[in-house]
Specification:
Elements (H helix, E strand, L loop, with lengths): L9 H5 L2 H6 L2 E3 L8 H9 L4 E4 L7 H17 L7 E4 L1 E3 L2 E2 L13 H7 L2 H17 L4 E2 L24 H17 L3 E7 L16 E2 L3 H6 L3 H8 L5 E4 L3 E4 L2 E3 L7 H10 L5 E4 L5 H6 L2 H11 L4 E3 L3 H16 L5 H18 L2 H5 L4 H22 L1 E5 L6 H4 L6 E6 L26 H6 L9 H16 L3 E6 L6 H9 L2 E6 L6 H19 L5 E6 L14 E4 L5 H11 L11 H8 L10 E2 L2 H18 L23 E8 L6 E10 L2 E9 L8 H14 L6 E4 L10 E2 L7 H8 L8 E8 L11 H7 L3 E5 L6 H10 L2 H12 L4 E8 L3 E9 L19 E9 L7 H18 L4 E8 L3 H6 L3 E12 L8
Parallel strand pairs: 1-2, 1-13, 2-3, 3-6, 6-7, 7-9, 8-10, 9-12, 15-16, 15-17, 17-18, 18-19, 23-24, 30-31
Antiparallel strand pairs: 4-5, 10-11, 14-19, 20-21, 21-22, 22-23, 24-32, 25-32, 26-31, 26-32, 27-28, 28-29, 29-30
Helix pairs in contact: 5-16, 6-7, 6-16, 7-9, 7-24, 12-13, 16-22, 19-22, 27-30, 28-29
Length: about 950
C-alpha cells in the first residue's frame, strides 16, 4: 500500500509516468456494456477513475456485473489499486441508478430539509451509500453544498438544501457522515457555488458568479468551509462557471489557481482531492481546447480531471497531459502530489478484495425492506402544506364522493430516475418550450429518460382510487387555458393544479393565475370551486403569493413523492414538512408571539435529547464553535451548594427530542444565563423566546437579585454571545430585541498555543518579569488558598470564586499559580490543570480529539497592581505553559481572557480560539417578569 503521509510506494516510482497521469483522469462513456474504448483507456492509458451515469445503468444486478467487469479489467491490466467508481446519486430527481426492486428512491436535498430532521438526512445518506456500495460504487458525487442565494431563479432548485448557509451546512454534513459511515467516499459540490448564477448571454455561454469574495465568504462558502473543517470530506467538485468581480475575473473556476489553490486549498484548508467539472463543455473546447484546458486544470490545483464520455476528447486530454510534461508545464513532483491525494482517497474507500467481490443483490435484498420503510417515512415527512386558508385538506372532508375532482398537470422536462424507465425507451421528445441556458447548463449529462407526463398520469389514477370518486385529468402547456380546460373547470367542484418550477417555466404561473381567477369568479356566482396548487419541484413557485389559498409542496415528482402526496391529500397522515431556509422564517415570523411549553430539565429524561441537540448544533455551527462537539449533556450541571441552578427545555413529549435548552444559575445577587440554544431546524418559531422569558422570570424572582449576566465561565461553554464571522450580528440583534442593553460588552476569549512542542518563550520576557520583581509560586489545596480566594473575591465574578474553590480541591490535577510583587503583594492568579482534569467536563475546549490539552484557566490580575498588568498576565501565562509542558500536554488552552490583555498574549504566540461578549444588565430591564 502507498505510504500516503510520506513518499510514494516504490512501486509507483518504478512505473512509467503515464501510470500516474492515468490516475489523474476520471472518464465515462455511453452504453450499458464495456466498450472497446473504455477497455482501452483502462488497459493502455491506465485510467484510474470511472464516472457512471444513467446511460450506463439498467438495474442493480447489471450495475454490479458492469462494475465488477471494470475492476477485473483494471486488476488484470496491473493497476496497483482498484478503480474509483463515481456516481451521481443525489436522490429526488437526480439518481443515476434506479431499480424498483432493489434501489430505493428518497427525497431531494430540499425535501429532506423540509422533513426537518438532520438525523433522517443522515439515515437517508447512509442507506443510499449502502445500496450503491453493494453494486461496487465507492465515490458518491455529493453532498450538494450550494446555498441558493437567489433561490427563486436558480437552476439547481431542489437539488440544494435551501438558502440558509447554516441549514445547508447542517444537512450537508449529516449526509456526508451518512456516506462515510457506509464506507463510501464523498465529494462536496459545486465549489465555489452554483447557488447564484447569472446568465448574462456571454460569448462563452456559461453562467457567471458576480458576487465578491467577501459576499461569497459570508454565505455561499460557509457550508464548504464547515464541511472541510470536519476533516471528513474526501473530494471537492470544482465547477466550470465563470467568476466576475472586482478582485477576480475567471472564465472557468476549475481552471483557475485563484479558485483551486488560493481559495479552496489555502483559505479553506482543503487537503483532499479536487475534481474538475467535465472539460467536454463546448465553451471550453471552443475557447482554449481540451489539451490546454486539461493542463490548466492540473496547474490550477485539480487532482482529477473529468471527461464525461467523448472518446476522441478523452484521448485529446491524455495527450494534453503528456504534452504538458514534455513542455515542462507540469513537473513530475506536481503529478505525484495529485497521485498521492488520489491514492489516499482510494485507500479510504476501496481495496481489491472489496472491488472484485461486491456484495451485490444479496445485500440489497436484505436491506431493501428497512430502506423502503425509511423512504416512505422520508417522503411523508417532507410533504409540506404552506397554506390551507379554506381548510380544503383532507379532500375527503371538503368534498363529497360524487363531486368531480379535476387534475391539471404540465408537460414537463424529462425526469431522471423512475421505475417507469423499464417500460419507456429513451425519448427525444421535448416539451413545447425551448430549453433555456439554465436548463441546458444544469441538466447536461444527467441522462434524462422519461417525461413527467407518465408520472402524473399515475398520480391521477392513484388519486381516483384513494378517494373512491371520479377524477378528470388533462395536461396544460404554454398555449394557456384552452376550451377543454374551461369545460372541465366548469364541471369540477375541486381543481388541483400541479406546477414544476413555475418561476422558470412562466407559462405555468400564468396558467395557474388564470384558473385561480376563473375559480374566484365562479365562486362569486355561487358555484363550488375549490382550488389547490401543488408545487412538485421548487417550493418558490407560489410561496409568497397569498392569492393561492391552498398550496402544497412535494420537492420532487418521483413516484414515491406522488404516492405520499396522494396519502396527504386523502388524509392518511397530516403533513408536517416545513419550508427551507428564509421561506420558513418569513412564513413563521408572524408566529413570533407563539408560546411553547417550557419544562424544567430532568437529567434522566432529557440528557440523551440534550446530547443529540448539542451534536446538531455542532454540525450546523461555524468552525469557531466546534467545541460544541466535545460538550456533553452533563457539562451544564455544577452540583455546587453555593450556586442555585435551574435549567429549562422545550421538548417533544412524544419523541423526547429537545427543541431548545437554557441553563441558568444564581449566586450572590447575580442571575446568570449560561447557555441558550435551539435546534437549528426549529429556529424562528419562538422557542428561544419562550425559553428566554421563562429563564428571566425564574431569575427575576430570586430574593436579593440585583443584576442578570449573559455568559459564564463556570461552566465555560458559552462565555457570552459568540462573536462569529458567519453570524452577521443576528444573535446580538435577537438579544437586543429581547430587552438586553448591549452597549457595554466585556469582550473575552479562549486562546490557545496549538503546538507546545515548537513553542518557546519570547526573547527578553523572563528578563522583563525579573526586572519588575514579579515572583511566582504554585499552590495546591484549599488550606493554602486564603490569599487567593480573597484576591478573586475582590477582582472577579462570583462564579469565578467558585471555580477557584473547585480547582483548589482537585489537588491531583489542578493548582493555582500566584504572582507576587514587592513585599509579597498578590497581584495575579491563574488556575493550572493537567490533561484529563475534571474541569474538562465543564470547559469543552479542554477536550480535544485525542490530543492532551493543558489548561490555564481564569487568569485574574489586580488592576491597581504596582506593576504593569500586561506583564503580570504574560508571566502567569508563561508559568501556565511551563506546567502544561511538564504535564505532557501537546497544546495549551488559556480560557476567559479579557480583551485588554489579549494583545501581549498574542505577542507570546497565543492564538484566539473563540471570542465572546459578556453582558450584565440590571434586573430592572425585565420588571414585568418579577
Amino acid at each position: 500500500m502507498p505510504k500516503l503521509d510520506g513518499d510514494l510506494d516504490p512501486l509507483w516510482q518504478d512505473l512509467d509516468l503515464e501510470w500516474a497521469i492515468g490516475q489523474m483522469l476520471i472518464m465515462g462513456w455511453d452504453g450499458t456494456e464495456v466498450t472497446p474504448q473504455i477497455r482501452h483507456l483502462i488497459e493502455d492509458h491506465h485510467i484510474g477513475s470511472i464516472l457512471l451515469t444513467a446511460k450506463n445503468l439498467k438495474s442493480a444486478q447489471q450495475t454490479a456485473k458492469l462494475v465488477q467487469e471494470l475492476q477485473t479489467i483494471a486488476h488484470q491490466a496491473g493497476h496497483p489499486q482498484p478503480l474509483l467508481i463515481a456516481l451521481d446519486q443525489e436522490n429526488g430527481g437526480v439518481n443515476s441508478l434506479y431499480d424498483e426492486d432493489y434501489i430505493c428512491q428518497f427525497p431531494s436535498s430540499m425535501g429532506q430539509a423540509a422533513a426537518g430532521s438532520a438525523d433522517l438526512a443522515y439515515k437517508v445518506a447512509k442507506a443510499t451509500a449502502t445500496e450503491v456500495s453493494a453494486v461496487g460504487v465507492n465515490l458518491i458525487l455529493g453532498p450538494v453544498l450550494d446555498v441558493l442565494t437567489n433561490a427563486r431563479y436558480q437552476p439547481l432548485g431542489v437539488r440544494a438544501t435551501g438558502d440558509d448557509p447554516q441549514e445547508v451546512s447542517q444537512y450537508g454534513i449529516a449526509a456526508m457522515n451518512g456516506y462515510k459511515d457506509a464506507g463510501v467516499a464523498t465529494c462536496g459540490k459545486h465549489f465555489p457555488s452554483y447557488g447564484n448564477l447569472d446568465f448574462l448571454g456571454s460569448s462563452l455561454d456559461i453562467p457567471i458568479i458576480t458576487q465578491t469574495l467577501e459576499e461569497l465568504s459570508l454565505s455561499a462558502l460557509v457550508p464548504f468551509r464547515n464541511a472541510v473543517a470536519t476533516g471528513k470530506l474526501d473530494a471537492m467538485f470544482v465547477g466550470g462557471c465563470g467568476i466576475t468581480n472586482p478582485s477576480m475575473n475567471v472564465n472557468h473556476a476549475c481552471l483557475s489557481d485563484q479558485v483551486v489553490d488560493d481559495l479552496l486549498r489555502n483559505e479553506l484548508g482543503f487537503t483532499g482531492v479536487a475534481i474538475s467539472e467535465c472539460l467536454e463543455m463546448e465553451a471550453l473546447r471552443n475557447e482554449i481546447g481540451v489539451k490546454t484546458g486539461t493542463v490548466m486544470a492540473v496547474e490550477a490545483g485539480c487532482d482529477l480531471v473529468l471527461l464525461c464520455r467523448a472518446y476522441d476528447v478523452q484521448l485529446e486530454a491524455i495527450a494534453g497531459l503528456k504534452l504538458g510534461v514534455e513542455n515542462e508545464l507540469l513537473t513530475k513532483e506536481r503529478i505525484y502530489i495529485s497521485l498521492k491525494r488520489v491514492l489516499r482517497l482510494k485507500n479510504s474507500c476501496t481495496s481489491w478484495a472489496k472491488a472484485l467481490n461486491p456484495p451485490g443483490i444479496s445485500l440489497l435484498a436484505k436491506v431493501h425492506p428497512s430502506h423502503l420503510a425509511l423512504s416512505l417515512k422520508a417522503y411523508d415527512d417532507s410533504i409540506t402544506v404552506i397554506r390551507d386558508n379554506e381548510k380544503l385538506l383532507p379532500l375527503n372532508e371538503s368534498m363529497h364522493q360524487e363531486e368531480e375532482l379535476l387534475l391539471l398537470t404540465p408537460l414537463v422536462k424529462p425526469l431522471p430516475a423512475s421505475s417507469m424507465t423499464k417500460t419507456i425507451l429513451e425519448s427525444k421528445n421535448k416539451s413545447d418550450s425551448t430549453p433555456t441556458n439554465h436548463d441546458k447548463w444544469i441538466h447536461r449529462d444527467r441522462g434524462a429518460i422519461m417525461s413527467g407526463e407518465g408520472v402524473f398520469r399515475e398520480l391521477g389514477r392513484s388519486l381516483a382510487r384513494a378517494r373512491h370518486g371520479k377524477l378528470l385529468h388533462t395536461s396544460y402547456t404554454a398555449n394557456g387555458v384552452r376550451p377543454v380546460h374551461e369545460n372541465l373547470i366548469h364541471r369540477a367542484s375541486c381543481i388541483i393544479i400541479v406546477t414544476a418550477d413555475a418561476n422558470r417555466n412562466l407559462y405555468q404561473a400564468g396558467f395557474t393565475k388564470h384558473v385561480s381567477m376563473m375559480c374566484s369568479m365562479l365562486k362569486a356566482s355561487g358555484q363550488k370551486k375549490s382550488l389547490l396548487v401543488v408545487a412538485v419541484s421548487s417550493p418558490y413557485d407560489f410561496a409568497m403569493d397569498k392569492s393561492i389559498g391552498t398550496y402544497l409542496c412535494t420537492f420532487d415528482f418521483t413516484e414515491m413523492a406522488m404516492a405520499s402526496l396522494v396519502r396527504a391529500l386523502c388524509g392518511n397522515f397530516r403533513p408536517r414538512g416545513t419550508l427551507p431556509g428564509t421561506l420558513r422564517k418569513s412564513r413563521k415570523a408572524a408566529k413570533s408571539r407563539q408560546h411553547w411549553l417550557v419544562e424544567a430539565y430532568e437529567r434522566d429524561r432529557d440528557a440523551r435529547g440534550l446530547g443529540d441537540l448539542l451534536q446538531s448544533l455542532a454540525r450546523a455551527s461555524a468552525p469557531s464553535l466546534q467545541f460544541l462537539q466535545t460538550t456533553n449533556a452533563f457539562g451544564f450541571e455544577l452540583f455546587n451548594s453555593n450556586i442555585e441552578e435551574a435549567h429549562f427545555v422545550v421538548r417533544n413529549s412524544s419523541t423526547q427530542a429537545l427543541y431548545g435548552f437554557c441553563a441558568t444559575y444564581y449566586l450572590q445577587g447575580t442571575g446568570i444565563i449560561g447557555a441558550l440554544f435551539v435546534d437549528p431546524t426549529k429556529r424562528n418559531v419562538a422557542i428561544g423566546r419562550s425559553l428566554h422569558r421563562r429563564a428571566l422570570r425564574g431569575l427575576a424572582q430570586k430574593r436579593g437579585i440585583k443584576k442578570i449576566q449573559l455568559g459564564m465561565c463556570f461552566p465555560g461553554v458559552f462565555l457570552g454571545i459568540p462573536m462569529t464571522t458567519d453570524d452577521g450580528g443576528g444573535l446580538k440583534t435577537w438579544f437586543a430585541n429581547s430587552g438586553w442593553d448591549l452597549q457595554f460588552p466585556r469582550r473575552i476569549a479562549n486562546m490557545t498555543i496549538p503546538d507546545l512542542s515548537t513553542w518557546a518563550a519570547p526573547e527578553g520576557l523572563l528578563q522583563s518579569i525579573s526586572r519588575a520583581n514579579i515572583s511566582f509560586d504554585l499552590i495546591h489545596g484549599i488550606d493554602n488558598a486564603e490569599s487567593v480566594l480573597t484576591h478573586i473575591a475582590a477582582h472577579a465574578n462570583p462564579e469565578v470564586f467558585e471555580l477557584y474553590k473547585l480547582a483548589l480541591q482537585e489537588t491531583k490535577t489542578c493548582g493555582v499559580v500566584r504572582a507576587k510583587s514587592h513585599g509579597e503583594i498578590l497581584v495575579g492568579t491563574v488556575i493550572i490543570c493537567s490533561p484529563g482534569s475534571p474541569l474538562a467536563g465543564l470547559i469543552p475546549p479542554l477536550t480535544s480529539g485525542g490530543d492532551p490539552v493543558g489548561g490555564i484557566i481564569a487568569p485574574t490580575v489586580a488592576p491597581s497592581a504596582p506593576v504593569q498588568a500586561s506583564l503580570v498576565m504574560q508571566g502567569l501565562a508563561l508559568m501556565g505553559v511551563r506546567q502544561n509542558k511538564a504535564h505532557k500536554a501537546s497544546r495549551s488552552l488559556l480560557s476567559w481572557v479579557s480583551e485588554e490583555v489579549q494583545e501581549p498574549l498574542l505577542a507570546m504566540g497565543f492564538e484566539v480560539l473563540q471570542a465572546f461578549e459578556e453582558f450584565t444588565n440590571s434586573v430592572d430591564n425585565w420588571q414585568d417578569l418579577a
